[in-house]
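Slide 14.
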Amino acid sequence: MRPALPTLHAITDERVARRPDLERAAAALAAGAPGLALHARGHTLTGLEHYHLAVRLRATASARLFVNDRLDVALAAGADGVQLGAGSLDAGEARRLGPSWLVGRSVHSVADARAARAAGADYLVAGPVFATATHPGATPLGIDGLRAVVAVGLPVIAIGGVTAERIGELRAAGARGAAAIRSLWDAADPAAAARAMGDALER
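Slide 15: predicted structure.
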């Protein structure tokens, strides 16, 4: 039986992955939001760099480790879950490698969401919901688009321009949880930022 899906997800990028204080920042985030999911993600990282990132995040014992795209890294690092992108294996193939994994798919449309559900994904990461510096050229889903993805029937983690102040409307649209990069990792007080988001998700 697979574990419950965390509601708050802190996702790295290449910049975060190379921070010398990564373990300290990850521990602070986890202290602010118990049960936090930490995602080892970095599109341009080598396999070895991605593995080292996952191992560094894995050291945060109170958090759950998810690995984006790299199933070999997820296996080697003992991940709790994986998040698959457009170029990854489908959810069913991933589950054969890690039967206990929570398997998610990044989606940007209702069509993507339906395909992910048909392939056996456990959850969706949908976005960007709002405009975001991480994907400056992407057209945001908006709240109506998010609501349409939620209607497909899988638990949805909203991403893209997410802040604690916006979580109320994401929850009202049906999102199970939220994910962020900058709002969490770049916060002056990561524990407080994670706590604010976690508290908003619990309301």
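Speaker note: Residues 129 and 142 are 5 Å apart (CA to CA).
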